[in-house]
Each structure stands twice: as C-alpha cells, then as structure tokens.
Design brief:
heterodimer, A: 320 residues, Tetrahydropterin Synthase, Chain A, 4-stranded antiparallel β-sheet, 9 helices, rod-shaped, B: 334 residues, alpha+beta, 3-stranded antiparallel β-sheet, disordered C terminus
Chain lengths: 320, 334
C-alpha cells in the first residue's frame, strides 16, 4: 500500500513538471515568437521574458528578431549603353511582423526565396535603365591622374553623373521594398551592390585597352626625355658659342687697344724728331735686310765711298 | 540475514526480497549531493581576461559582466553569452593568411578570390585590390542582439564600401596617389554603415595590402615606370654633359682674355721702353748732331757691307753700266 503511494506520487510529480514545461516558455532577446493554437496563430510575442500558454494546445514558433543576411546570385545585366556586366548584390532585412511572416511565408528560407525574386528583379530593372558609368561612379568628382595626358583624355569624355551608385542602389531598395510592402511582414533595411564586373568574355578587351593606353604613356615619357635632352644640348651649344665668341671678342679688342696705344706712344715720341727717327730706323733696316746673298752696287758719289776718290774736305759734305 | 552466497537470476528477485530498509537511508543524501553538484555546475561561470559576458535572465538582457568568477541562477534561468571584447579581429579580402606567425603563408587561390579582389575603377579599368580590416567588439549587447551574422555583415559592407570608392576613382588614384584616401574613407563608410545596423563593432583600421593592375597588363604598367626612369636618365646625362662642358669653356674664355690683357701690358711697356730709349738717344744726338750722324752711319755700314756677297763700286762718271753684269738668273742668285 505504502509502495503504491510512492509510485503514484512520483508519477504525479513528473506529470506536473511536464505540464509546467508545456505551459511556460522563454522568449530570447534575439527572438520573437508566434503562438499558434491547433496551427492557427493567435498572438505574437516580441518582448523577451518568461511567458505562460495553455499546455499542449498552444505551440510556440520562434523567428529571429535581428538583422538577417541575404546574398544574391550574380546576375548578368545589359546596361543602357549596352555593356554586359555582372552585378552582385546583398541585402539586410528584418522580420518586423512575425504573425504576417508566419502566415504568408512560414519559414525563413521561404523569406529568402521571396527576397531572391524581388531584389534580383529590382536590380535588373534599375541597373539596365542606367549607363555603366552611372552605376560605377558615385559622384561627379574629378578623376586624378599622374599624367596630364590621361587627365585630359578623361576630361574630354565629359562624363556627367546624374545619379551615382548610392542613389541607384537606393532606388533598387525602394523598388524592392514597395514589392514587399504590407505582404510579408518583412522590412528591407539595406540593399547594396557588392561588385560590378565585366562578364568574362569582355575582360580580354578591357585588358587590351588598358595595355595600349599604358604603352602610349610609356612612349610619351621616353620621347619627352629625348626632347628635353635635345633642348639641353641645344642650349649648351648656344652657351658654348656665346662664351667662346665673347672670349675672342674681348681678347681681340684688348689686343687692338694695346696696338693702338703702342702706335700712339711711338707716334707721340717720333713726332718730336721725325728726321732722326727716319735716319736711325733706316740704318736699322739695312742691318736687318742685308744678307750674304745681297749684291751691293755703290757709286763713288755716295758719302761712304767719296774718300775712295778724294780725301779733300768738302764744304758741302755736312748735311743741312 | 539474507543468503548472499547463492546466485539468483534477476527475474527471480522479488521486489519484497530487496532489503529496502538498508538502502532507504542512503537515498536522500545521494539525491541532495546530485542536486548540489548540478546546482553548482550551472550556477558558476568564469569570464576570461579578454572577455566579457552578457547575462540573459529568462531571455531578457540583465547585465554585462567583466572577467572573473561569477554566479548566476541555475537550471537555465540565466543564460551566458561570452564574447572576446579585447581581441582584434582580422578580415582579409582578396587573399588569405594561411599560416600565422613567423612563417606566414599568403594564399591567393581560393574559391572566388579573383571575384573578391578584381574591381572596376571609375574610368572602366580593372584593378586587383587586396585589403585587410581590423575591428573590435565595442558593445557586446549590440553585437549579440541586433545582427545575426556580424562577421558576414562586416565582409559584405566592406566590399560594397571599397568598390563604391574604387568605382569613383581613376586607375591611377587606386594604384598610387589615392590609396591613403581610400583607406581613410572606406574606414569611415564601413563604420557609418555598421553603426546604422547597431552591430556594436568598432573598425580599427582598413589597410590596403596591395593594389595591382591585373596580371595580364602588369608588364604594360611596369613599362611606364621604366620609361619614367629612362626619361630621367637621359635628362640627367644631358645636364651632366652641359655642366661639364660649359665651365670648361668659360675657363678657356677667361684664359684668352687674360692673355690678351697680358699682351696689352707688354705692348705698352715695350713701346714706352722703346720711346724712352729713343728719346734718350735723341737728346744726346742733338748735342752733336753732325758727328753722331756720321758715326751712326759708318757703324752701320761697317756691319752691313761684310754681310753682302759681292760689292761693286762704280765711279759716278761711268755710263752704261748694265752690260757688265751677266743677265743670268743663276748668277744673280749665286
């Protein structure tokens, strides 16, 4: 009898514990819950804490309350200027109305499925309405280059960005958000473009263009060097001519002046005794011009040999 | 006393035969010990030095505690979420460090590595960008409560932010001149977007590890650098030549000028000397003009006449002198 009581007591305690376990539930701060009765949702719990429900009749379904990730498959899009690009996007979303989410979609993976459709079509629609540059560029800032030539080449294109990536992405987000609005209990918090790339087939062409552009710059640098070299050597030659001719000019001038001064000095002095000068100078020239090839013919008439004929003193022999 | 000496099969043991009296008194203490152990096990926890812990009581946030040994309500009433708040986390883009430490291995080949680093610049060129971001958890509650996959979120945002910046810059800016600015702005953008999500992350740095032109066009980019060096070398050589030749020419010029000046001094001095000599002689000559004149004449003649090969003396009265000489060029010469 006593044993039976013990057994019954144990069974009762276990039963009470099971009932208790089935009638209380905890909602984590990171989660929110939908309470269903025989599969039919009755209410939602979004605040964390310990809650009570009818055991066995009511069930709890939890949904994440945090920001959830979504990552899109890369999609090939033809832009307005007919460039074939691959665009990858990601999004962040939230379940804001768990009841609606539960009734319309039920599970998170189906939520991801809806986002796949909605966002991918929004991306396609929006991106294909713009040129590649509009999607690529974000602002109208001036692109800077290390060479003037490239900068000019970019300037000539006169790219004008009216939207830019951030605004286009916002347009995608709005379009997708409108498609989701009021239907699934989802809030689309953010959509962004992860990457934009050319499709594989076009890439070699891009590389060819980059290559030829750089080779052109390289050639330009080299010919710039040659030009500057010629300029330097040319100016060197000019300087050289100037210096040498200046030297010649100054030297000649100086020597000319020297000669002129000398002439002046001689002239001033000889002026004082012109007869004496011509006499002595003439004698000097005899000395320097006569040599052993000279045949000298003299008459006895001259002063030198006049004594050869007569030793008479002459009155007239004294000059002047 | 029961007989333990004989083996009994389990089905033969009857409930009444178990000596409950002796076992019964041990049951309560054993239960109590088990209870205490379980309670102790679920009521204590440690938080390591570089960690903090968030405590959830019945799912609600209660508090955040620092390192040390702590108590909590047992049996799952309090839940602990630990996070390393002092650790600096790394995220690498375009490459992977496969082995940390002294012999680190950098891997460039893994699924979608190329897609991660290949970017289009604003002038529709391609660049390969490798970068790394370092971040810390700045608010543990936000980190746990607001965003489900924080790490993936950081990676996604960083890629979007980096590509937006690169897409708004020229290839030259991305490769060289704009790198610091890109690092700075991408850090700001990343932080701003993450703060918008309230994910409790503090971005410490964004570092561009390497920005290269894609492999197939690398040589063309190197050719540009080489061309710059060639240009500089050509110019330097020309300058060098100029700097060598011009000073030498200048020196030569000065030499010529100085020599000319020397000539001038010499010429004037000589002239002055000549004149002085001439005038001195003239002074004396004037005193005895006739005699001196004769003497000078005779002195000269005495020097000149011996030098001549032949001397003919002809009387002044002789006419028709010429036939006397042989008209013979050789004779004249000899």
């Amino acid at each position: 009898m006593k044993k039976t009581i013990i057994v019954i007591t144990i069974i009762a305690v276990v039963a009470v514990l099971i009932c208790l376990k089935a009638s209380v539930y905890v909602v984590d701060v990171r989660l929110q819950a939908v309470i269903t009765q025989f599969g039919k949702p009755t209410r939602t719990v979004t605040e964390p804490g310990l809650y009570v429900k009818s055991p066995f009749i009511q069930e709890v379904r939890y949904f994440d309350k945090r920001l959830l990730e979504w990552s899109g498959e890369p999609s090939d899009i033809l832009t307005r200027d007919k460039e074939n690009i691959g665009v990858g996007t990601w999004a962040r979303w939230k379940i804001t109305d768990p009841l609606k989410f539960y009734t319309s979609l039920g599970t998170e993976s189906r939520g991801q499925g809806v986002l796949d459709e909605v966002i991918e079509s929004a991306v396609k629609n929006v991106v294909s309405a713009y040129t590649l540059k509009e999607v690529l560029r974000n602002t109208n800032r001036k692109l800077e280059y290390t060479t003037k030539e490239l900068e000019d080449a970019e300037d000539i294109k006169k790219v004008l960005i009216t939207m830019g990536r951030d605004k286009i992405v916002e347009e995608i987000r709005k379009m997708a958000a409108r498609a989701l609005e009021g239907r699934y209990g989802i809030e689309l918090v953010d959509v962004r473009i992860k990457y934009i790339n050319y499709v594989e087939a076009v890439i070699p062409k891009i590389y060819d263009r980059m290559r030829s552009e750089r080779i052109r710059i390289a050639n330009k640098y080299e010919s710039e060097g040659r030009r500057e070299e010629a300029e330097i050597l040319g100016s060197m030659k000019r300087e050289l001519e100037r210096i040498e001719s200046e030297g010649y000019r100054t030297a000649e001038e100086t020597m000319g002046q020297a000669n002129a001064e000398a002439v002046k000095i001689y002239a001033e002095a000889y002026e004082k005794a012109p007869e004496f000068y011509s006499f002595t100078k003439t004698l000097e020239t005899y000395e320097s011009t006569f040599d052993k090839q000279t045949h000298l013919i003299l008459t006895t008439d001259g002063d030198y040999f006049k004594y050869l004929k007569s030793f008479q003193k002459e009155d007239k022999s004294v000059p002047e | 006393m029961p007989d333990y000496g004989q083996y009994k099969r389990p089905q033969d043991i009857r409930f009444e035969d178990i000596p409950w009296g002796s076992v019964k008194k041990f049951i309560p203490p054993i239960l109590i010990i088990i209870f205490v152990i379980i309670t102790g096990y679920t009521a204590f926890y440690t938080v390591r030095a570089n960690e903090e812990a968030v405590i959830l009581r019945f799912g609600s946030y209660k508090e955040t505690v620092g390192p040390g040994l702590h108590t909590k309500l047992p049996y799952g009433i309090d839940k602990i979420l630990k996070g390393e708040v002092k650790r600096i986390y790394n995220e690498e883009f375009g490459f992977r460090t496969e082995q940390r430490g002294s012999s680190s291995m950098i891997g460039y080949e893994y699924p979608d590595a190329r897609g991660e680093r290949l970017m289009l610049t604003g002038d529709i060129n391609s660049a390969e960008v490798h970068w790394v971001i370092r971040y810390k958890i700045k608010a543990l509650e936000e980190y746990f409560f607001n965003v489900r996959n924080v790490r993936e979120t950081i990676r996604d945002v960083s890629q979007a932010a980096m590509r937006t910046l690169v897409g708004d810059r020229s290839i030259d800016e991305v490769l060289t001149v704009g790198r610091t600015e890109i690092e700075q702005k991408s850090k700001e953008d990343l932080q701003r977007i993450l703060d918008g999500y309230k994910c409790g992350i503090d971005i410490q740095t964004v570092l561009l590890k390497g920005v290269n032109p894609p492999e197939p066009v690398k040589d063309a980019f190197n050719a540009v650098n080489q061309a710059i060096q060639i240009r500089d070398r050509i110019i330097n050589e020309a300058e060098g030549q100029k700097n060598k030749i011009l000073p030498a020419a200048e020196g030569k010029k000065q030499q010529v000028i100085k020599e000319a000046e020397g000539y001038r001094i010499r010429r004037v001095n000589e002239a002055t000397g000549d004149i002085k000599a001439f005038l001195a002689v003239y002074e004396e000559y004037k005193k005895a003009e006739d005699v001196t004149r004769r003497r000078l004449y005779l002195e000269t003649m005495s020097k000149v006449i011996p030098k001549c090969e032949k001397l003919y003396i002809i009387d002044k009265d002789i006419k028709g002198l010429l036939p006397m000489f042989e008209i013979n060029p050789e004779g004249v010469k000899k």
